[in-house]
What we know:
The protein has about 300 residues and is of the alpha+beta class. About 45% of the residues lie in helices and about 15% in strands. Helix 2 (about 65-80) packs across helix 3 (about 85-110) and helix 3 packs across helix 6 (about 145-165). It starts with a helix and ends with a strand.
Amino acid sequence: xxxxxxxxxxxxxxxxxxxxxxxxxxxxxxxxxxxxxxxxxxxxxxxxxxxxxxxxxxxxxxxxxxxxxxxxxxxxxxxxxxxxxxxxxxxxxxxxxxxxxxxxxxxxxxxxxxxxxxxxxxxxxxxxxxxxxxxxxxxxxxxxxxxxxxxxxxxxxxxxxxxxxxxxxxxxxxxxxxxxxxxxxxxxxxxxxxxxxxxxxxxxxxxxxxxxxxxxxxxxxxxxxxxxxxxxxxxxxxxxxxxxxxxxxxxxxxxxxxxxxxxxxxxxxxxxxxxxxxxxxxxxxxxxxxxxxxxx
Length: 296
């Protein structure tokens, strides 16, 4: 990898993806007790004072995301977007930190390993001729120690992410379809009666959607934003059109133009499937995890 490219990747990790930063420091447990005169019995504290808790933004399966980590990430995010942050921005930052913590935790359980020497070597490759890594760290509010920790967690999270999305197959069963989408039930019933009377599906689809003619292209199961359509469409025969299907976005009449039992998935479609796979994994992981938001 060229150093300039590596440097760009580093910036992408830290600014766009909001890298992990979790500190788990332990307080000093050594306690000092006052001495007394020898003629009196020693005065003893019944219980040692409780250590001061680390201010936290969230606790994920017992792992603390410190308040300082969250605040530093907010500052980096603000610098990236170059505007005042909204409540939605703040929520996005903490949710991203939680997601990346979950991914990094799972990576540890799945066998992710990297030696200190390899981590050091990777960090050294991030220095560019135009900007030393130390200057870059200072610009984005990192110390060498905090960046090392964040970078390790980001590598673990990325490793787990890649493992999840790699499970999306390269090819699978797919159909090619065309739809007539309407937003009024009475109009949908009128169009359906026209089809039953012999009107051409393609002409009606073009009338109601002149730009795309209702063409949906090739897609596998799980690609449509309305999952319940899969069970209907993948059981239709080629050349058939469906009954009126009501969904949250309107009334659909869909015709199957072609079908293949095993077809290579279009890269753009596969990318969407991978995004869904990652989202589904995170949703399941959250349900199985103990996550406490502790923001003041």
